[in-house]
Each structure stands twice: as C-alpha cells, then as structure tokens.
Design brief:
10 strands; six-stranded parallel beta sheet; four-stranded parallel beta sheet; 11 helices; 17% strand; alpha/beta; 43% helix; binds D-glutamic acid; 270 residues
Length: 270
Amino acid sequence: MDNRPIGIFDSGVGGLTVLQEVTKVLPHENIIYIGDTARVPWGNRSEEIIFKFSLQIADFLAERKVKFIVIACHTASSVALPLLKRKVKVPILDVVSPAIDEVLLKTKNLRVGVIGTRETINSGTWRRKLKEKKTRLKVFSIACPLFVPLIEEGLFNHKATEIIAREYLEPLNIKKIDTLVLACTHYPLIAKTIKKIIDEKVKLVNPGLTTARELVKEIKKRNLFSERKQRGEIEIFLTDAENKAIGVFNKILGHKFKVKIMKADLDKYD
Ligand code: DGL
C-alpha cells in the first residue's frame, strides 16, 4: 500500500484526457498533474528541447514524491521515454507502448493511420513499435501541427478547426485505413470534428484509455494502491497559470472534479 500521489504530465491541457481516464479506474488515488502551458506546443521543437522540458517536469514530480509518473504526451513519450527511464528514479509509463496491441486487434485490413505532432510523427516511434509486432502492417502517418494551438485555445468544435482538419485528414480517406490512432493526447478533444471528416467505418483509437488500464496493472504488480476510501485529490500545476488556460481546463474537466490549480516554476530544474 502506498498513499503517495501519481504524477501525470503533458505540454498543456491535452494530458487531461489521460487524467480523466485514470480517475475512472483509480478513483482513490491522489494525482498531481502538470501542464507546461508556458511553453506549449512542444510538438514542433527539437529533440534536445523536448528532453530538457520532460526532464525538468519529471524532476518537479519526483521532488513531490510521486510513486509513478505517466507521460500523458505522445511527443515526450515518442522522443524522451528512454532518457527519462534512465534518469528518473520513479517508475514511468508512456502513452504509446500500452496501445500497440489494441491497434493491432482493431485493424482487420492492416492499414492504420497515425496522426500526431510533427515531432511524434518524425520520431517514427509509433510506426516502429507497430511494425515490430506486425511487419505486414501499412502505417500512414500525418503530422497535424496546428491542432494543438487550436485546442489550447479551446476551439474544439469550431469551424476553423474543421477547415484545418479537412486539409490534414481528407488525404487519409483514399488510403483505405480501417483504424486511426489519435497519437496526441489533445486530439480526443476534437474527436467529433475528426469523425466528420474520416470515413465513418474507421475506428478511432484513444491511447489514453489503454494507458489508464496499464497503469492499474503496474500499480497492482508493485502493490502501490492507496489505502484511501474516499475520492483522491487532484492538484493541477501550470507553468503559466493565466486565466485562459484555467478556462480551458474547466471546459475539459467540467465541475466534476474538485481541483486545486497552482503555478509551477521550472527554472530551478535547469
Ligand atoms: N499533448 C501533446 C502530445 O500528445 C501535445 C504536444 C505539443 O505540445 O505539441 O503530443
């Protein structure tokens, strides 16, 4: 038994889609979430910068004595996972590895689309991990760099988002995919818009769901469940706690959760 919190991080608000899934399967756990709202988006940055930001945040969480870290960001998971595992002395779970089997179970015609940030797609991590398990699989990857800024602005069902989404996603319809991976934790927030454009037979995969289930398995394996009987507390740290970001947080989480929002300063982790 272990009453320490679980740490979850993302470049911004997208990781809340993972946090929501985690609270469903682990309702008695305390959670510390940190979103790097001062420096989002990360997805257009170099590997070196993504390493630096990810390590700073992992150190911030380790200092708060978290028992587990969930990287609720595909960009950081795709680029910085091996580095974080080497450098941080807290068990870590990424959002890519837990979802590979689910994608392979869903696809029947072995034609899969993957959409993510530029760095997630350029890293080739999704393609590599999928093809390692099924070499015959055809993977069609598309970077959608404008989605994250639109989502951080709270424009989930907005016509601007739909116009951009058509540019990115319509070419996928001629590839005859039957499964599409939302390889960015921000994208489930615009799933409705994505569904309008993608062929209706295509199944969407939200890796946040399998990540939450995998976290339960890991916590069980290590005997890390909390003894709490009441709902756990959620603390949210933002690196720039301006009103706009807080508004978007409320829009995503609604008023279901009692959350404390605080400002995080990462300068001292340089
Ligand atoms: N939610 C992050 C991801 O899953 C967005 C990255 C970004 O800030 O560009 O990749």
